[in-house]
Amino acid sequence: EEERQLQANNRDFNLQFEYANNSIKTSKYNFFTFLPLNLFEQFQRIANAYFLFLLILQLIPQISSLAWFTTVVPLVLVLAVSGVKDAIDDFNRHKSDKHVNNRPVQVLINGMLKDEKWMNVQVGDIIKLENNNFVTADLLLLSSSEPHSLTYIETAELDGETNLKVKQALTVTAELGEDLQKLTEFNGEVRCEAPNNKLDKFTGTLTLRGEKYALDNEKMLLRGCTIRNTDWCFGLVIYAGPDTKLMQNSGKTTFKRTSIDRLMNVLVLVIFAFLALMCLILAIGNGIWEHDKGYYFQVYLPWAEGVNSASYSGFLMFWSYVIILNTVVPISLYVSVEIIRLGNSFYIDWDRKMYYPLNDTPAQARTTTLNEELGQIKYIFSDKTGTLTQNIMCFNKCSINGKSYGDVCDISGQRIEINENTEKVDFSYNQLADPKFAFYDHSLVEAVKLNDVPTHRFFRLLSLCHTVMPEEKKEGNLVYQAQSPDEGALVTAARNFGFVFRARTPETITVVEMGETKVYKLLAILDFNNVRKRMSVIVRSPEGDLTLYCKGADTILYELLHSSCDSLKEETTEHLNEFAGEALRTLVVAYKNLDEDYFQDWIRRHHEASTALEGREEKLSELYEEIEKDLMLLGATAIEDKLQDGVPQTIETLAKANIKIWVLTGDKQETAMNIGYSCNLLNDDMEDVFIIEGHTSDDVLNELRNARKKMKPDSFLDSDEINIQFEKSSKKPKVIPDEQANGVYGLVITGHSLVRKIQNHIRAE
């Protein structure tokens, strides 16, 4: 399937493509396949295969020296116990599948909502979901109970994030509301990409009444999500059952072996080899004796039936000795190790130091091999935001038109430390202010009240350039639903300083500016992604002015600024470095006034690109690059994200266990290093902290070599074990032994050095 085509409310049309229905299957066996498949899996284990081999030998009368049931009984017992365990596990999977497939959902059929089972839902059906319902399949959102057809979803089962995300229907489908007649008559045709496992991407188009509309991931509700804070919503099934993104990501579980398992297998194989050697020596001895002596004693010791030579007698005796000496192979070792593992898992469960009293949560070992798996860890790769930090963002400081705000100074102009007794800014003049927001620099409020133009433009940008959704259940009681906590913090700051983001529709943004309500027309959103590292909006003010507002990383935005901003850029850079030195997250903000004729031509090309099925992202990226030029710098923001409790102590303990820790962060280099010191990842006791920031492969290679040479001066000698490994030419992957440095060191490497410039021949350095 290269492209999916479907029509709403037209099962006959959709059935011709033979799309999967919404039934899922996660079980491994059925009644007929359980026995052969399970036995096949069990005999892949060395111990079971060895028992089976012995049983086959014992069934041969010429070599059998022990009764066959001495092997059958333990083999059947082991297979039965494992088989019952696997059967129970698979029965639970069948039970879970049946429960999910038989969940009820309301499907629109012949103008009426009918209760159907999940498994009977088909591609092209329109279904109704209510608050706290699980999403049945991958749906295109058509309409909802919320203003402007917003729908709030929780995606914890998909990506582990608990903060609510917001989806919004197209305006043309939002008009359908909950009118069953209109929904029944809806015959939109969707063309989209084939089923895939990319949770954050969707490309498609909706054709309705001759008009084509672009579809993206912001209009999709994925299976595995839960509807929240939304009374009802209607959706069109795009992918069902095994084609949904959730199921596309549910690959087969890979079987992992611990190092103890691998060691035991190697030991057992060595013992096998030793057993074979013993049996071979004994068989040769038997053959020699039968040839020299036994041949003449056949009157007293007759050879077995069918044996007509000494060599054949030795061959049969080899297998007899394999049976007799089978106890040499310590099959019980596996059982002993499992008992030890079980005991160690109980020690983890009972560990008082791993008990969290606030939630009454003890540690829980869900696998008996957890203890030895933890002991194998050499490296920890961790994200920073939300893992090391609390992911609770606070607007702390900012720079506007070359002036820094956020510090508190005494009468003599000396900076003083902010504490609980420091006087907060009084926002009581603003009826819509957030009472939880705290700021201490009174000069910024004065600048706003004095109608300072750059300051007003700065907060206007923060109130317009974002993807936050507002909720106002009661008059004046605003709650922001932000997919990114950074955006929530910036919009809240603008709100308190008099630029209150009040409402949003697909075409407008309503802002209360210093008590005056203004409605801006939202003409385009230039999305943020990891390559662009910025986002922009294009709006038309009530006065008719066209403006592009942009915010993003300083390294990216500085390249897009107009040459007239050079002096302001230098001042802002100084402030950014100060903010980074305090481990604050920084963003640069800029704007651009647009020409009407140029914009009309650009928006026409933007519509063509956004409705293209092939190369949509590349075409849009080119258009974004084209318009985001010659920007005028406004300033910068600085947000604080505090460390979670116990992070420095935890990292210190892990370091004592000789575990190397890597932390990934999107912050500026200075910010990253300061956070590294604050969480004990870096410390002053280190011999050195190496910074790798080269822009070319050669620069990065030289920096890495210099670092290695300092950590281990003799690492470039021909006698060094790693260098010897590299001298050997081989296409097979090489296992490089660990190097012991002559001290404790830290390494900071920038993104462009790590991703763009480090080629295969550098990785080993």
Q: What does this molecule look like?
A:
The protein is of the alpha+beta class. The protein has four domains: 3-22 and 121-249, Distorted Sandwich (Calcium-transporting ATPase, cytoplasmic transduction domain A), CATH 2.70.150.10; 334-376, no CATH class; 389-642, 3-Layer(aba) Sandwich (Calcium-transporting ATPase, cytoplasmic domain N); 646-763, no CATH class. The protein is 37% helix and 23% strand. It has a nine-stranded antiparallel beta sheet with strand order 16-15-27-26-25-24-23-22-21, with helices on both faces. Strands 3-2-4-13-5-11 form a six-stranded antiparallel beta sheet. It has a four-stranded antiparallel beta sheet with strand order 1-8-9-10. A hairpin with a 5-residue loop joins strand 17 (408-409) and strand 18 (415-416). Helix 3 (46-58) crosses helix 4 (69-101) and helix 9 (259-292) packs antiparallel against helix 10. The radius of gyration is 35 Å and the shape is globular. The model has no long low-confidence stretch (mean pLDDT 85).
